[in-house]
Amino acid sequence: MGALLALASAVSYGLSDFLGGVLSRRASFIRVALLGQVGGLLSMGLLAPLFSGTVPAVADLGWGALSGIGTGLGMMFLFRGMSRGAMSVVVPVSAVGGVALPVLVGVVVLGERPALLAWAGIALALPALWAVSRGKAGDGQSAHAVVDGLISGGGIALQYLALAQAAPESAAWPVVAGRVTSILTIAALGATLHLSATRHANDGQRRCGLDLGAAFAGALAGLALLCYLLATRTALLTVAVVLSSLYPVIPALLGITVLRERLTPRQTVGLVAALAAPVLIATA
């Protein structure tokens, strides 16, 4: 059952990223990210009482709130990267950072000693990131999209690191708290940095279909995180982490097959390495 939940998490995350990336090319990525978190808050607010009706500790809600800041950063820059670059590149780059950075924090801050496979995955990630960032000559957008993916990976790493500190008995309530702070984070950065001023002219039309799609993508992401948490409690942690870390495969393959994204041979090799790196790190 735990393995199925982890796979469900990977599928939900992958479809959420793909849908969010498509919508970010048709509307402001800030609006897509913001409405996605609203959708996640609504869905998790309905599901959380089913797993625990007790009020969690303030500290657990605090860790959830901190994780939401990472979620807001991660989703905002992930969608911006996909709005101006190939999602088959941006999502794996984000995933590498989201998995590798917690390992490095564990080593430097917590004194942990990862297995050899984890170090192999980190070593593989570095040339992979270099390869996928090397688009066609003069393609500055590709490099900017990779930077967005790296920033997104940092946000996702913060999300996982903070959420892992919440006690298991708090159930899904830290995730709910995280959706609240993710909304505030995206709204604040969008207003302060004027990041919503993009090339998407049709954002002002406020098309209902795009808004509903963004909210649905956020609900899928919330469901993915819930499935992951449940998987870690019903299966070996290694199994849950490895299977759920397969999520970049979905948007990468859909980007190439459905959206007809074209990668250079060097980027293709980097993509394969970037997909393999999180799995190696998680396996260890």
Automatic annotation (TrEMBL):
The keyword Transmembrane appears for this protein: yes
Protein keywords: Membrane, Transmembrane, Transmembrane helix
Membrane-spanning intervals of the chain: 32-55, 61-79, 86-110, 116-133, 145-164, 176-197, 209-231, 237-259
EamA domain residues: 1-133, 183-282
Family classification: Belongs to the EamA transporter family.
Protein name: Drug/metabolite transporter (DMT)-like permease
Organism: Pseudonocardia parietis
